[in-house]
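Hey team,

Sharing the Autoinducer 2-binding periplasmic protein LuxP run so nobody has to redo it. Sequence (335 residues) first:
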Amino acid sequence: MLGMKFAAVLCLSLFMVKTVGAKQYKFAVVPKEENNPFFQASREGCEAAAKELGNVECIFRGPKGVDVRKQDKIIAELVAEGVDGIAIAVAQSAFILDNSMKKALSAGIPIVTYDSDFETEAVNRNPNLRAAYIGTNDFELGKALGEALKAEMPNGGKVIIQSGRSDSPNLNLRVMGVRSALSGREYEHSPGKRLMGEAGWTEPTKPLYNFGSFEQALEDLKNVLNSYKQRDIHAVVAVGGWSQFLTTYRNVVEPYKQAISDKEIIIITADTADEQLVYLKDGLAHANVGQNPFEMGRQAILTLYKLATKKPVEEIQYIPMTYCTQENYQTCTKN
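Structure output:
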């Protein structure tokens, strides 16, 4: 018995010595914005991976709201601090490439992207720009949003698309996916072309851009709901969860609950945060297509650790999506 206790203590001591003696790494995760439930979940994934590994510190730092210049400044600061790797959710590809990324590459700091990648053309020009992309297949996410709309309205109609920025690489891919699903066409470049009657679908306006503002996204949705009958609009597809991250979403949408139930107006939205699933339960939306930001943050750190320890990584790491409706909202995000 004493021998077994001695062996257990010895093993524990050896483990502690190994952990204490191991090189300590500092990896940074830079979201598009900190004040967003999606990116807060990626922070939790970052911290979970750091705890798993034991000799890693997770640094989560980004602008409070979407701000390309502030994100660029934060990346430059992290490079100056000498972190061992950076995972970036790219807000705007060109500006970061012209500024902080030059410093990061010059310093030899491993870079991965998550949630939002650099422009495809930029990656093709410089294959060493980033070692990996971890996140959703954004084109397929957009297609899934479009297919969800078709399931509710198989004969077409007029649709408003909500997006964040016109120069956001990942959001443009989602917009292209929506258009491709509805039109049945393939587009050479994102965000595709505005729908002008293809397969019965029309976009009466260009996408409504909110620049990452939840309040603006909700105000845009409110304006559509207030005027959908006069303008003969049948659906709203949001390629991000912006408006549904506000508790006031309920106040705006609830007056139209019967119209939503009767499918006079269809609401399809990206992301499946807990608060969004409540809106499905209460009949205040038709469908959500979700991502797994926790796993993105976790895999970003695990990938940076592999790079720092000279292990191979997969360049493209797609995280599976979730598909939620009023019927399956209780189980759609469960593993």
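The CA atoms of residues 103 and 232 lie 51 Å apart.

Ping me if you want the raw files.
A.
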